[in-house]
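Bug #77: duplicate submission created two jobs. Keeping one. Sequence:
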Amino acid sequence: MVKIYDTTLRDGTQAEEISFSSTDKLLIAEKLDELGIHYIEGGWPGSNPKDMEFFELAQKLNLKNAKISAFGSTRRASVSVEKDQNVIALLKAETEVVAIFGKSWDMHVLDALKCSLDDNLKMIYDTVSFMKKHGREVIYDAEHFFDGYKRNPEYALKTIKAAEEAGADVICLCDTNGGSLPFEIESIVNEVKKHVSTPLGIHCHNDTECAVANSVVAVKCGVVHVQGTMNGFGERCGNANLCSIIPNLMLKMGIECIPPENLRKLTNISRFVYEIANLKPWTHQPYVGKAAFAHKGGVHVSAVMRKPETYEHINPELVGNVRRVLVSDLSGRSNIVYKAKEFGLDLDSKDPLVQEVLEKLKVLEHQGYQFEGAEASFEILIKKTMKKFKPYFDLKGFRVIVEKRGRDDQPVSEATIKIETPVGAKLTAAEGNGPVNALDSALRKSLEEFYPNLKEMHLVDYKVRILDEYAGTAAKVRVLIESTDGKRRWGTVGVHENVIEASWQALVDSIEYKLMKDEEEGKQIVNESSQGE
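Kept job's structure:
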């Protein structure tokens, strides 16, 4: 059994783009507890009021698995442990567990703390023993241990011996600069085991992109406590990524670290933490990323459909993820059949329609279309080929005007559009903060009278990609739009030399996809009492 110590709420917040409020931290703590994490490090109560507020609020949490830990340093060289305000703040946090970090590298002792090597040993001993006397479970974080050991192994070992003699419950060896490699971790951990009997932990940073590998190797050597963060959040290049470490331990090494049934929650909780951090999830993140089990090449897809393990190292459902088949000019018949099945369409690989879709797909991708992020457009393409799609409106014409009256004035955009639906026609004008926004507003304004449920949807992302940059302002562009109605999200695409036309194509697909799905679900989509102008 390996215990997992999550430091997302403390070390993870040192990433330059991340800042959590106390409420954010409480929400994440509840999710980590739900996953089955053993320890949740809430922050450094001696460093800022926000962390102290978290510890006060955290006492009201009804955690079932995790213990909250407060983080802090050893006492200062010039102050007794009883009078050191940072140490007192740790006690005031009233957590069952405290993590104390101290210096292992003689250079840091002499140049950063500016005290003697012996004084540093006393600071470690005094702080750990003080916390033990006050009934705390103490995890001693040996900061810069691996760098310190490489330069002065005798002194590095003395520092953790001081923590052991003071009664530390766990001694966590830290690769604080993230510069160690797996063979170094293995050698040093094996050597440390000869000198201490206290359970060992590992805390790695990712500056050589070896943090996960270093953590796993340490466990192989007998470490029973692993520290890391969700999604690898952390300073510089980040911390060891628990979203990779946990399934590596459980699925690859057969070592339990969270309840087995909870592993299926990993992908959702990973994305929840991204959402709270207001960051876009890393598409290619191992195990939990959207592309972690995505297949594009026709040969791959054909094999996966017969036997998934041909191109998947685990069943994606084990970590709560899903298999995805992408469509592109690399696709084969298997890709088309798989996607059709996803859309609820019955197609056989020998059906001529499959080849027709494949040929259309390759022509469109040659023109610049990309359906990997626009599966709604691809579903519409398949249904049009199968003659199973009906348009929900016809365009009779639109005009977009952008006017700028003076050098320093803001431009004004206005769109006028006329559409016709089975129950009426409409001529509408709308303004926007740009020509595409104006066109979108006018289109929705026209259609919502006939299709009221369109009020449920809105755009959540809009991207423009230049496809042939050497053509300058005459370049062809690809527009990708992501939409949501609160229940689902979908992507659509348009391509043209004119960005308004490319945007129009993607907008039309986004709206017709919404109407198509609602109709398939048996919802009434038409307001038949509407009268067009």
